[in-house]
From TrEMBL:
<feature type="transmembrane region" description="Helical">
    <location>
        <begin position="223"/>
        <end position="245"/>
    </location>
</feature>
<feature type="transmembrane region" description="Helical">
    <location>
        <begin position="57"/>
        <end position="75"/>
    </location>
</feature>
<feature type="transmembrane region" description="Helical">
    <location>
        <begin position="169"/>
        <end position="189"/>
    </location>
</feature>
<protein>
    <submittedName>
        <fullName>Lantibiotic immunity ABC transporter MutE/EpiE family permease subunit</fullName>
    </submittedName>
</protein>
<keyword id="KW-1133">Transmembrane helix</keyword>
<dbReference type="InterPro" id="IPR021205">
    <property type="entry name" value="Lanti_perm_SpaE/MutE/EpiE-like"/>
</dbReference>
<keyword id="KW-0812">Transmembrane</keyword>
<feature type="transmembrane region" description="Helical">
    <location>
        <begin position="136"/>
        <end position="157"/>
    </location>
</feature>
<keyword id="KW-0472">Membrane</keyword>
<feature type="transmembrane region" description="Helical">
    <location>
        <begin position="96"/>
        <end position="124"/>
    </location>
</feature>
<dbReference type="Pfam" id="PF12730">
    <property type="entry name" value="ABC2_membrane_4"/>
</dbReference>
Amino acid sequence: MNMIQSELLKYKGTFTRKLILLAPLLFVINALLQKLFMPVDYSRSWQLLIALVYNWWPVIFVPLGIALLAALGASQEKKAGNYRYLRAMNISPARIWSGKVIVMALHTLVAAFFLMVATVISGFISADGPVPWLKIFTGGLVIWVASLAIIPIQLWVASWKGTFYSMTAGFAGMIAGVLAAPKSCWVYVPWSWPTRLMCPIIGVHPNGILLEATDPLRDASSIPAGITLSILSGILITAITAIWFDRKEVKS
C-alpha cells in the first residue's frame, strides 16, 4: 500500500490526471454531436449512443490511451532521476514496478468510471427511453478488466525504449486488435480482448456495424473466457516484466 500511495503522489498535478477525465468526455462529446446532428425523425435510442461510445472506446482509447499513460509515467520517472533512489534505499525494484502497474490500472478504472457517468449524462440529453444501466456499467467494467494485460506490456515498452516506441506499440496494437477481434485468433492478441468482449454486450461489430441477432459474435461465452484470460495474463506479464525491471536496475 505504501508503494501504491507513493506512486499516486507522483501523478498529482500532472497531465495524466487531466487525460483520465478528458478522454471519456471527448468520446462522449463525439457521440453526442453525431446524434444531435441527425435528422429530427431519426431514432434517438440509448442503443445508438452506447454503440458509438463503447465501440470507439476499446478500439481507440484502450490501446492509444494506455500507451500514452505508460509513456507519461516512464518519462516522469526519467525526469525525477530515472530510479536512482532505488540504489540509495532498500526498496525492491520488482515491488516498485508492480506498484506502477497497479496505479496505472487504478487510473484506467477511474477513466472507465468517468466514461460510464458521461455516457449516462449525454443519454439524458439526447436519448429516449429508459436508461440501460446494466449494459452501461457492465460494458465499462468489462472493458477495464479486459485491458489489464495491456498495461504491463505498454509500461515495459515505454520504460525500455521510450515514448515513441510506446505509442508505436499502441498504434500497432490498435490495428491488430480491430483485425483480430472478429476472428478466432482474438484470444492471442491482448489488444483485441476489450473490443471482442463488447460484441455480445452492445451488439456491435468491431467495424461499427450493428450485429444480427444470430451473429456468432453475440456469443456471450467469450466474456468469462476473455476476463479470465486478461486477469491471468496480466498477473503473469506483470511478474515477468517485474523480473526484467529488477535485473535492469541491479545492472544499472
